[in-house]
């Protein structure tokens, strides 16, 4: 169930449209106010109030400012704050129809395993236990810098039901190439159909993931329980 | 000051020395293709093939010598022989070999020992160049004086060396004492050093000899304007550890990331390859007066500081002994650790202070490298700035030496130009505001800090005893460091390790510490 609503950002009062911004402009000190005003107008912001300016160089200035956005947007909103049928760990463990083997890795050149470990490792992150702690899952954490070729070999070796890829480095879109290549290779080897493919990382979202051919994407703030709930629904339906 | 049992600390040092010595006995019999390339780089072979692949000449010749099964004798004498044989510059005959215009003569059974004298002369010339570079550093530091500690260590990483120059210049002007150019992601897994000026790195800039030179020249110019010496850092890790050390020495880098075990754990590089490479790399760094940075801080990104700080301390003891075996003096050994305690731990600041003080006391003459929080930074930039403030306080409060400035956009992106400014501002504020803080306070007997330090030291002592018994290799196989397990036969680059023959000759051997 959802309704629509017209909204603006909230600062001092509801829907007053106040924003805090900061950025650097390559202009001289004497030109900075004018440049900021023009930049704000371009962004449909009114009442720009520059709170602070730091000179980074004679022609490079950092500003912190507050401004008001004129436009409102129409959004659909859920009527209930609770996500439908969201289960806790015990419920998932009891109701999961099959035991699942999950293979996870940071692939390509990525060496950042913080996200991968937060989702997979027993300890989890911020008090939410990782998938390794679930009785219904077996987890193989391959760590960092795993090539797509090696990852596919491991999926076959462990007869994995779920593949979980973490991508942190997204500078110059290096992750897009890597993820697309992985899906292509899985399809070429005939493994894709039997495998639930998940990707996670701070710059990942569900839309991007499904566009790239994954079953789901998990972005910033996602927990192991979110992933477990997705797997549960995926296996029930 | 903390009250620690001096006998336990000396026991830890002694155990670590024995642990390192056991590995040292193995690695002394070995060399690697990476070390051979480093030798040739020191001897001035620094070109690359003229086609679009730009394969470094040192790779072309070392691969050919490996195929000819003579790598076990060392490469340098063969290069001398081939110079005479082809009677052209090395650059020319390597290019000719590469393009199949010429082919390698049969190298089995030829007497190459007669080239030793001329080769040793060339090695001396190379080492003189390095000595000249380090005396430029010494002279400048003498003239301008050394900066007060903790030194502000700042990273730049645009991917484009020209953009890096400007970012580094601004950082130095804002107060940075050390500039580190982060390498393009996964450069550590390249089994060659890219060539020339580069503008297309991902999450960092390729480390190349030319990029080193450009940054060094620029920082010298900026330093002159500022009236101080600005230090430059890059990485001697990965498959080209020794080559990087050679280039760093030739181009006057002042610090290099150089760990005895980091590549094994975090890059899955073969153990024997890493242990062998790090030894030669560090001998070059010892000679060049480079300060090394070790990578124990990384353990706390894959395991929790609250539970695993003793593994950091244990590794510091061992890393230092490996460094000593390569001739590095304590003043060149920047042992790494970090402010990574979970932000929700009660009294986390006191525990962090205990951990930082403990390293300080165990290694009083080492310029410790203290790393900012990353593991528990989750994208809330304002909170990250606050946590970094406490990191800064812990650093000045415990007398750290090399302080990697924490930036509010950690875990989001490569820092923007103004984010670096805000980070330096925060750090300078705290370092000045709390300048004499440590001298004014005494650590309470039987307090939280005292208890934590004793506990961590005791655990490290037990772990060192266990490692001594089981061996370092089994300890790494069991996943004791950073929760990461690696096997002795696994990892990348093992095909580049070989046993030295009785005729093996490396002209730098007898001159390096």
Structure, described:
The complex is a heterodimer of chains A (about 240) and B (about 525). With about 240 residues, chain A is α/β, with parallel strands linked by helices. Helix content of chain A is about 30%, strand content about 30%. Chain A has 7 helices and 10 strands. In chain A, the strands form 3 sheets. Chain A has a 5-stranded parallel beta sheet, sandwiched between helices. In chain A, strand 3 and strand 4 form a beta hairpin. Chain B is globular and about 75 Å long. Chain B contains 19 helices and 11 strands. In chain B, the strands form 2 sheets. Chain B has a 9-stranded parallel beta sheet with strand order 7-6-5-4-3-2-10-9-8. Chains A and B meet through strand 2 and strand 3 of A and helix 16 of B.
Can you give me a brief rundown of this structure?
Chain A has helices at residues 32-42, 89-95, 114-120, 148-157, 174-188, 206-211, 224-236, and strands spanning 2-7, 18-25, 45-57, 60-69, 73-78, 100-106, 137-141, 162-166, 196-200, 216-218.
């Amino acid at each position: 169930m959802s309704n629509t609503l017209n909204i603006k950002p909230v600062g001092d009062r509801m829907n007053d449209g106040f924003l805090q911004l900061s950025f650097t402009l390559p202009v001289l000190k004497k030109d900075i106010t004018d440049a900021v005003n023009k930049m704000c107008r371009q962004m449909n912001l009114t009442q720009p109030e520059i709170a602070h300016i730091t000179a980074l160089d004679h022609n490079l200035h950092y500003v912190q400012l507050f401004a008001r956005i004129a436009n409102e947007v129409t959004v659909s909103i859920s009527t209930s704050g609770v996500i439908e049928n969201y289960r806790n760990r015990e419920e998932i463990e009891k109701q999961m129809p099959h035991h699942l083997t999950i293979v996870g890795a940071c692939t390509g050149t990525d060496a950042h395993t913080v996200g991968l470990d937060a989702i997979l490792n027993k300890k989890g992150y911020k008090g939410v236990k990782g998938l390794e702690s679930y009785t219904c899952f077996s987890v193989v954490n391959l760590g960092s810098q795993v090539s797509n070729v090696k990852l596919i070999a491991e999926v076959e070796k462990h007869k994995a039901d779920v593949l979980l890829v973490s991508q942190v480095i997204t500078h110059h879109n290096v992750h897009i190439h890597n993820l697309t290549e992985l899906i292509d290779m899985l399809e070429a080897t005939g493994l894709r159909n039997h495998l639930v493919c998940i990707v996670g990382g701070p710059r990942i979202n569900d839309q991007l993931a499904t566009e790239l051919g994954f079953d789901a994407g998990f972005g910033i703030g996602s927990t192991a329980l979110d992933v477990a709930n997705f797997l549960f629904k995926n296996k029930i339906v | 000051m903390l009250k620690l049992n001096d006998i336990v600390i000396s026991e830890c040092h002694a155990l670590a020395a024995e642990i390192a010595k056991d590995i040292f006995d193995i690695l002394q019999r070995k060399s690697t293709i990476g070390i051979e390339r480093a030798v040739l780089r020191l001897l001035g072979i620094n070109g690359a093939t003229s086609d679009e692949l730009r394969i470094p000449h040192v790779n072309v010749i070392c691969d050919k010598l490996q195929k000819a099964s003579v790598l076990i004798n060392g490469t340098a004498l063969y290069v001398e022989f081939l110079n005479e044989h082809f009677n052209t510059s090395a650059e020319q005959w390597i290019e000719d070999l590469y393009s199949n215009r010429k082919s390698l003569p049969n190298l089995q059974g030829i007497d190459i020992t007669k080239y030793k004298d001329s080769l040793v002369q060339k090695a001396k010339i190379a080492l003189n160049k390095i000595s000249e570079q380090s005396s430029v550093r010494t002279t400048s530091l003498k003239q301008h004086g050394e900066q007060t500690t903790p030194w502000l260590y700042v990273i730049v990483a645009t991917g484009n060396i020209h953009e890096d120059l400007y970012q580094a210049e601004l950082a130095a002007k804002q107060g940075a004492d050390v500039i580190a150019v982060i390498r393009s992601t996964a450069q550590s897994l390249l089994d060659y050093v890219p060539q020339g000026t580069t503008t297309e790195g991902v999450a960092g800039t390729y480390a190349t000899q030319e990029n080193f030179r450009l940054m060094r020249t620029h920082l010298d110019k900026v330093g002159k304007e500022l009236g101080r010496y600005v230090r430059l850092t890059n990485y001697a890790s990965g498959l080209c550890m020794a080559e990087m050390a050679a280039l760093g020495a030739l181009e006057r880098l002042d610090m290099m990331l150089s760990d005895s075990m980091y590549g094994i754990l975090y890059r899955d590089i073969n153990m024997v390859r890493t242990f062998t490479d790090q030894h030669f790399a560090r001998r070059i760094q010892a000679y060049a007066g480079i300060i090394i940075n070790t990578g124990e801080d990384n353990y706390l990104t894959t395991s929790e500081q609250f539970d695993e700080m003793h593994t950091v301390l244990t590794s510091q003891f061992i890393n230092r002994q490996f460094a000593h075996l390569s001739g590095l003096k304590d003043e060149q050994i920047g042992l790494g650790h970090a402010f990574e305690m979970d932000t929700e731990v009660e009294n986390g600041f006191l525990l962090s202070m205990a951990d930082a003080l403990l390293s300080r006391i165990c290694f009083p003459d080492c310029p410790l490298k203290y790393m900012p929080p990353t593991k528990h930074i989750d994208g809330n930039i304002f909170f990250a700035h606050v946590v970094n403030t406490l990191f800064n306080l812990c650093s000045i409060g415990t007398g750290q030496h090399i302080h990697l400035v924490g930036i509010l956009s950690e875990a989001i992106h490569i820092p923007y130009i103004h984010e670096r400014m805000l980070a330096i501002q925060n750090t300078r504020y705290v370092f000045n505001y709390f300048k004499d803080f440590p001298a004014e306070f005494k650590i309470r007997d039987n307090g939280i800090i005292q208890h934590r330090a004793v506990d961590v030291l005791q655990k490290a002592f037990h772990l060192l005893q266990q490692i001594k018994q089981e061996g370092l290799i089994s300890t790494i196989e069991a996943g004791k460091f950073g929760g990461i397990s690696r096997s002795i036969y696994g990892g990348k680059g093992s095909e580049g390790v070989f046993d030295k023959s009785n005729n093996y000759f490396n002209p730098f051997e007898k001159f390096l510490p």
